[in-house]
Amino acid sequence: MELPVDFVGYTRNLLGAEAYGKLESALQLDAVTSIRLNKGKLPEDYRIEESHTPVLWASSGYYLENRLTFTFDPLFHAGCYYVQEASSMFVEQVLRHYVKEPSVMLDLCAAPGGKSTHARSVLPEGSLLVCNEVMRNRVQVLTENLVKWGHPEIVVTNNDPSDFSSLKHCFDVILTDVPCSGEGMFRKDEVAVSEWSTENVTLCWQRQRRILSDIWDALKPGGILIYSTCTYNLHEDEDNVEWIIRELGAEPLSVPVSPEWNITSDLSGRGLPVYRFLPHKTMGEGFFLAALRKSADEDVTPAKFKEKKKDRKSPSCVVPAQCKGWIQASSDYEWTVEDGKVLAYPRNYSEFIRLLQQKLKIMYVGIEIGEIKGKDCIPSHSLAMSTVLSPSSFVRAEVSYEQAIAYLRKESIQLPDTFSNGYILLTYKNIPIGFVKNIGVRSNNLYPSAWRIKSNHMPDKIRCL
Question: 16, 192, 362, 369 - which has most CB atoms within 10 Å?
Fold first, then answer.
């Protein structure tokens, strides 16, 4: 890899010649693959292979000795694990140390969903996670990954950061993994190398400050801001943290770390409590994080939902009675029908979600239970993926690896004659992978077309979780 000349000069001056030489050597090596398990789906007695080394700062993170064939692993499609860069899993330490009670969290720049699914796993139960992505094509991927992860207390939005300015004092935690110059991704992304320039670095730190200014009012007094980038330079890292402290009045927070993690501290000489992951020292890609607390002295007048006449319209149709038996603790959810789709979201956040619907562009909320077609309600794939799916609500059919791959390619599945007609939940290794509608001579495959495995080629060697 040939690194940009200006990057080499700046980074050598920042780190010193010896440390820079080690960094440059590390950038010539292959990136390490890491995953994070979804303990909400895997059985309690599940044990990872001994060859998979734990990520020390993430309770469910592991480095893989050999990369899995993710596309051809049914458990990957079932949301049993997520492929995530190890350094970015450090967000868990902030949440576990500072977020002890049920909270409302915003992941502002959330796609493709690594930090969102991670945050959803470690937030206190009863929390609500709002995941936003400004790019429409990327928000589809974000939604897919969150649906597969299966937690019901989520909202996905498609908005510019400035749209959150009207949601004053609404969030206990805001994660801003801001768009950056991407220096920390050089060995994983050749485009990041080719697009790097000092001009782009300047554009990035300026844009990052605009984003922070846009969302600052949405953070509650006393709330936690998590600021992160995947870059090395001071402009986008320590300089921006100092700006947040100076201009926004935030208090920098320390996060407990272990010396064996080999995390690098402030490189600016200011003594800021910041956390850098450098690939020649820490096993992972380049990453930077700082946690800050908003002053609690501000007057707390949070935005509230204001009912309007148009919000009082009668529902277009009634929620079919059988749908409420498809999830556990159905009375804990608000039920509605929108565009023929039955939705359920946490009742204790119903007013807040209505506020979000007034202010933002909602792409997904809670659980999509099913779609009404005449007198029938077709169970949704998100219901199959949900961790609150009622275990006894559907007949289950365990399938082989070959059948699972055929299903994920959206091919026909033939079930034994012993299965009656109707909706059948397919499982692989006792984990739900989706629905079919059995009609006797064949079964209609209900897997989402946009998510299907498009490749007809099977690798010579298959490695699955």
Answer: 369
